[in-house]
Amino acid sequence: MLKFLKKRLGEPASLIFDTASLTGLGGRLNQEDALAYCSINPQAACWIVADGVGGQEAGEVASQLAVTTILREFRANPRCSGKNMGQLLEAAHRAVFSARLSRPASKHMATTAAVLIVDHHRAVWGHVGDSRLYHFRDGKLLQRTSDQSLINMMLECGALSEDDMADYPQRNVILHALGQDNTPQYRINGPVAIQAGDGFLLCTDGVWELMSDRELLETWQARHSAAAWLAEMQERLEPRVADKNSSGKPADNYSALLVKVFPYPEP
């Protein structure tokens, strides 16, 4: 649990960010997801999930490199700003791209990512590809990132209906990723004011493909702590992973960071 110290009288109350993590192989042989989080001081913290692609173990290299790079750069500059988020994502992109060039057998190595940074009462998030961030408040899904994927682009322009998504042959094609040939388009949101009672979920597509937005909202509402929220998600998610594996279509790796925001307790 990340405890943020109380601020001076008249300033916004400090917050506690209660965090839990979930990760699993699904039906895959390798884990190509990576996740981590850190607090720098009583005023700054960062969470990241990443989903690597590329074959020959390159996916796990790309995702872990993105996570390591972003946390390292955040420790060096823990500012909660859109500019800093862009710099974090750009540093990760350069790191994965450089590693790709040094691995001829892994020329398609890349990774998606979703990143959240906060200070006492503000948050900024950014993402690349189809790893997602959800922001919950007052019993509602307040915001959710929009996937940078072929299928989402087709949905947005009306070329595909939601009923056709599950069977679309190119449903896993992503349009932007860290480490690709061209600099990806980073999508950044904030700073956004946050408050006690908020919840954040960062997850890879192995989670959201098996759980709807409505169900993710229900799991957040049903439980108090991040650990209890995690248990509720596992209870729903893991049987579906098993069912998908038994159907002959192996489930993807799945990973999530769950963050619940609480007020710092009064003395």
TrEMBL record:
Residues 16-261 form the PPM-type phosphatase domain. It comes from the Bacteria. SMART domains: PP2C_SIG, PP2Cc. Pfam families: PP2C_2. This is Protein phosphatase 2C domain-containing protein.
